[in-house]
Amino acid sequence: MLKETELLIEKGEMLPLMEEFYTIQGEGYHTGKAAYFIRVGGCDVGCHWCDVKESWNAELHPPTKTDSIVEKAKKYANTVVITGGEPLMWNMDYITKKLKDSNIKVHIETSGAYTLSGQYDWICLSPKKNKLPLEEVYQSAHELKVIVYNKHDFKFAEEQAALVGSKCELYLQPEWSNREKMTPLIVDYVMEHPKWKISLQTHKYLNIP
């Protein structure tokens, strides 16, 4: 049985599902839009400020049949956001095809550290210093969202912006625990460098998932 599960996971027909919920997109380009979130367990990027560290260990999240995940998503929304953890640790070809076959728009939020699998209407790349994105993800990204925890992150953001396509939307987002200190600096930075926009975690202000 275990071997059969491993094969299904390899093909993307099962995924280590952490949680799934219907809410309002709180960050980046699509802020304010209704979407169904599918959070997949497993991540080895290891950001010290991560607000979903419980997602890191995939073994804590039971392998779930992808078909059942898709069926539930279809009841709620015409847009699905696949997030994590780091979803590209897993094969996303099967789930994205199933969703798109049902005329659902598919977005992904990724660090870009793993090979891009799946078909997407929107790719939000949120690069991390611990494990940088692959070139193919830089070139495919529709949105670059850099989390700003300290002043050095502005330099990192510019380095990352130089690697994405010319039409990629650029966002700076204050890390939540340090937002009071960093938000004023981001405001000043965006006013001086207007190619950037500000992303806020509005779902946390609204007290929704």
From TrEMBL:
Binds 1 [4Fe-4S] cluster. The cluster is coordinated with 3 cysteines and an exchangeable S-adenosyl-L-methionine. Binds 1 S-adenosyl-L-methionine per subunit. Its EC number is 4.3.99.3. [4Fe-4S] cluster binds at residues 43, 47, 50. It is an enzyme of class 4 (lyase). Substrate binds at residues 24-26, 39, 83, 209. It catalyses: 6-carboxy-5,6,7,8-tetrahydropterin + H(+) = 7-carboxy-7-carbaguanine + NH4(+). Its cofactor is [4Fe-4S] cluster; S-adenosyl-L-methionine; Mg(2+). Pathway: Purine metabolism; 7-cyano-7-deazaguanine biosynthesis. InterPro entries: 7-CO-7-deazaguanine_synth-like, Aldolase_TIM, rSAM, rSAM_sf. Homodimer. Catalyzes the complex heterocyclic radical-mediated conversion of 6-carboxy-5,6,7,8-tetrahydropterin (CPH4) to 7-carboxy-7-deazaguanine (CDG), a step common to the biosynthetic pathways of all 7-deazapurine-containing compounds. This is 7-carboxy-7-deazaguanine synthase. It comes from Lutimonas vermicola.
